[in-house]
Amino acid sequence: MFLKGLLFYALSNILQYFWIKYQNREHITQQQKWYGVNIDNEIKSKTPSMGGVVFLWLGLLALVIDFSLDSLLFWSLPVLSGLIGFIDDWLKFRTHTSEGFSSLAKLKLQLLLCGVWVVLVFLRGRMGLWPGVWDAGGWIAIPVAFLMTAGTINAVNITDGLDGLAGGSFLVSLGVLLLLVPMDALNASVMVELFFMVAGFMFYNTRPAKTFMGDTGSHFLGGALAALCVMNGRTLAIIPAGFIFSVEMLSSAIQIFTIRKLGKKIFLMAPLHHHYQKKGMDETAVTLRFWLIHAVGAVMLSLLLLMV
Fold it and tell me: Per the structure, how many domains does the chain have?
């Protein structure tokens, strides 16, 4: 495991370095949203925006190294989710706009992928909400896993808005899952591979970021987080492991609801991390505090879940 961790960290770091150079040379950046927070737009609009592509390469490498039916089933979700994100990122780059896929088109692809994947996990006999809560044959686990898998992919995508926020939060989630999923050979290998590939990316993503993961990366990480929980018959583990991602998605949902139904905003801007930016808090301070909140919330919810 030590050598595998070293390999994935080195490859992640090196590949990101050359991928960043290539993106800079080809001007592969992302147009900032005109309705965004409008802080450091000039810098961020020049930052390479598809760092998550390296996750796809390393995910495929991990599959080749540890090939099995279960490994294929696991990596298919983050890799194919990442491909959906990549198409979105590529369309943004090609059209020189901040919008790629239409929201509805992207959602349809996500739902199709998650639906097929969850059914395959069920047929593989690995489905379940939580040991003692519902067994692998419980049909209720299928729609719950479907909704939570699609929700996790979108929640991580929504959270990816500050330098280091989504990547660092994902590393916290991996730490929490050490308490919640069994450490068999596949899980141990997957966690080592994921930790070090994301750690290599974070070397370039902490503020000031030299690259962003883009929708490619956020979709990949969301898929990986959901797969770790669902494939181990512990779908409910997504609740603590995805704590801060759920908070971010909920803040956006509340904002949309109150604007449309009440005609006013609850937050200065959604998702929640932008609210604090609008209040004048430094981006690094917001990121660090969200990591801390995520760690505390995830551990507390994990302890409650372990008591079930």
Answer: 1
Q: To 10 degrees, the CA torsion angle through 242, 227, 105, 249? A: 0
Give tens-digit pLDDT for 5-36: 999 999 999 999 999 999 999 888 877 664 55
271 found inside a domain: no
- What is the rounded distance in angstroms from the CA atom of residue 135 to the CA atom of residue 83? 32
Structure tokens at 271: 């998702």
The C-alpha atoms of residue 28 and residue 30 are separated, in whole angstroms, by 7
| Residue 94 resides in a domain | yes
Say what the pTM is. Answer: 0.95
Q: Which two tokens stand for residue 141?
A: 């686990």
- DSSP-derived letter for residue 236 is G
Burial of 115 (0-12, 13-18, 19+ CB in 10 A): middle
The SS3 of residue 130 is strand
For residue 89, the Cα-to-chain-centroid distance in whole angstroms is 15
Q: Taking a C-beta distance cutoff of 8 angstroms, is the pair 215, 89 a contact? A: yes
Instruction: State the amino acid at position 194 in one-letter form.
Output: L
Is residue 299 in a domain? no
